[in-house]
Amino acid sequence: MKTNYDVIVCGGGPGGIGAAVGAARAGADVLLIERYGFLGGGATAMMVNPFMTYFAGKRQIIHGVFQLMLNKLTAMGAYGSEKAPRAFDAEAFKIAAEEICREAGVTLLYHTFLADAQTQDNQIQSISVATKDGLKTLQAKIFIDSTGDGDIAFFAGADIEKGRSEDGLTQPMTLNFRMAGVDIQRLPSRAEITAKYVEAKEREEIQCPRENILYFFATQLDVVHFNQTRIIRHDATDPISFTLAEIEGRRQAWQISQWLIRNIPGFEKAYLQQTAPQIGVRESRRVIGEYLLTAEDLLSALRFKDVIACGSYSVDIHNPDGEGTVIKKLKPGEWYDIPYRSLVPLKVDNLLIGGRSISSTHEAHSAIRVMPIVFGIGHAAGVAAGLCIASGTIPRQADYRKIQRELLRQGATLGDICFE
Ligand SMILES: Cc1cc2nc3c(=O)[nH]c(=O)nc-3n(C[C@H](O)[C@H](O)[C@H](O)COP(=O)(O)OP(=O)(O)OC[C@H]3O[C@@H](n4cnc5c(N)ncnc54)[C@H](O)[C@@H]3O)c2cc1C
């Protein structure tokens, strides 16, 4: 087993896929390690669906590796349906992600859990990973943290924040589940289902802190996808709390699915097809970097000269402590920039953040965390790492214009930025 690479990307979710492909296409020798036996992270292991918006008005604002994924899914007949234009088939996503990575020359290593990092003089010298063959040490010139939880950054001693400023509580976790055998033509309106759900909560037939019923249609016409359970006051980086969250999520998923079957027209012959392999984690560690992105930056559509990705998804905070969801939207047709500096952690010199745990406040994180944007963030981290390898520099000193130029060459779009 080869143990030394130019770039090691840890975590194979949307951010890690973007990062690994971006770095490899910029010329680096890249290893992508992933704890599960498949890629996708949120998109597969957490069964998150659909892609949230990647448009500002009618203008598509995210391309690059994300567009490669859309092209593959579309070619596989696995993207969108009449009722759900941005839904994708998670099994197809796994295959498409592997193809995209392997076509770019990325080496994949599954069933490999990052467990520690060895740091000296602000440089990560190596990481320790747990495999079926025991503990291994892997080395790279640059590491990209795409674990979503900032695991490498944490092990390497970077500055970390968690949760909202007043009490450190993160957004709740949600165990996604799917029901199959649903007659969707006969479903009552969302408002009617929610009204019955609220009554059932009042009668204590259902114990779930979520205030309404949240579901999406899928690519399969008899399947309904539920983003419904809500597990509050748990911490996805605390092993015991994380375990208890899984157990409570499964209890809620079973209780709600059985209630739907008994009470809601269209569900009479339905069944709980699957709970996600792991509970969905909206928020855990955020890694403090050269720039702390705020909700005000996003909502005012601030332009950054070192923009490396764009997004238009709203600030969307599921109450960390109970019922309620705060949504703050951009003006129609607007988008925001994400600056390169938010991917560059303080203190650790050979590390980039390629996923949802970039340097942002709790509020800004709630917007930039969705999959299309994270693809864009990861892609930029990978390109930056690849260029650093080629020029022998560190991420903090990288020339953002060269990163932008290479991103554009690789098919990304960067809002107002374009080079002749
Ligand atoms: C309940 C829920 C609903 C959501 N709804 C939507 C939605 O409808 N649309 C949308 O676009 N987005 C949605 N999101 C957001 C989105 O799914 C995530 O924010 C996004 O997947 C983050 O991507 P990432 O690559 O940063 O992290 P992840 O997708 O979490 O990927 C991280 C990867 O790293 C791996 N990993 C982690 N730690 C280690 C380790 N120590 N060693 C090895 N591997 C490791 C994981 O297995 C995983 O594959 C939702 C999220 C949740 C939780």
Give the distance, in angstroms, between the N- and C-terminal Cα atoms. 43 Å
CATH architecture identity of the largest domain:
3-Layer(bba) Sandwich
CATH superfamily of the largest domain: FAD/NAD(P)-binding domain
- Overall pLDDT level: 97
CATH class of the largest domain: Alpha Beta
Structural class: alpha+beta
Low-confidence stretches: none
Total discrete domains: 2
CATH topology of the largest domain: FAD/NAD(P)-binding domain
Describe the secondary structure blueprint for this structure.
Blueprint: E1 4-10, H1 14-25, E2 30-33, E3 55-56, E4 59-60, H2 64-75, E5 79-81, E6 84-88, H3 90-104, E7 107-109, E8 113-120, E9 123-131, E10 134-145, H4 151-155, E11 160-162, E12 177-180, H5 190-202, E13 215-217, E14 224-226, H6 239-263, E15 271-275, E16 285-287, H7 295-299, E17 307-311, E18 315-318, E19 325-328, E20 336-339, E21 351-353, H8 362-368, H9 371-391, H10 400-409
Residues 10-16, 33-36, 41-42, 45-46, 48, 50-52, 113-114, 146-149, 151, 174, 176, 227, 280-282, 355-356, 369-372, 374 line the site of flavin-adenine dinucleotide.
Characterise the protein shown here.
- The structure is a single chain.
- The longest helix is centred in the middle third of the chain and has 25 residues, at 239-263.
- The protein is 30% helix and 23% strand.
- It folds into two domains: 4-165 and 283-409, 3-Layer(bba) Sandwich (FAD/NAD(P)-binding domain), CATH 3.50.50; 177-275.
- The N and C termini lie far apart (43 Å).
- With 420 residues, the chain is an alpha+beta fold.
- The protein has ten helices and 21 strands.
- It binds flavin-adenine dinucleotide.
